[in-house]
Amino acid sequence: MKGEVSPLPRGRCMEKRMLPGSLTIRKMDPQDLEEVVSLSATSPSNPWSKQMFIEEMQHPNASCYVMTSGEPSTASPLGFLCFRNVGDESDLLNIGVHPESRGCGIGKKLMTFYVEECRQRGAKTLYLEVDPRNQPAVRLYLSQAYRKNGVRKNFYQGKFDALLMMRTI
Question: Which of 56, 63, 68, 129 is 20 to 30 Å from the Cα of 29, by its Cα?
Fold first, then answer.
C-alpha cells in the first residue's frame, strides 16, 4: 500500500504492552522502503522521503535498521532508526514507531539497541534533535539518560525549533 502504513495484525500490542513474540532488529533494505517511508510520514515534524532513506543507507558512516515482529519474510516494520557514527560521536538522525505500536516499548527497545550499537562502535557521546511538541519522544529520550543541551532554531520545516539533546556512554 503505497503511502499508507500497513495495519498490524491484531494482538501485536494490547493494553499498552507487547504480547509474546519474536522481535527482530535488522539492517534496513530496499524492500523495506515503501513501508518505512509511509511510517515516517506519520511523524509530522520531519518525514523523510524515499530518497533520503536511500542516501542514508548508502552513506559510509550511516546505519539504518528496522524492527519487525513475527516471521521475517512477511513481517511489516514496527519501527526504524537511522544514525551516523563519526569518531567517538553519534547522531540519531531519525527514529519512528508504527502508530499502532506507540506506547508499547518499541521506541525504548530501538533506543536500547542504538546505544549498544554505539557503545560497540566506540562512540562516547550521542546527540539528537527532537521537536519539543513531541512530548512522548522527549520523555523517551529523558528516560534513556539524554539531557537537554540547547535549541536549534527553525529546524523543522524552517519554522519550528528543535530541542538538542545529548548523553554519554
Answer: 129
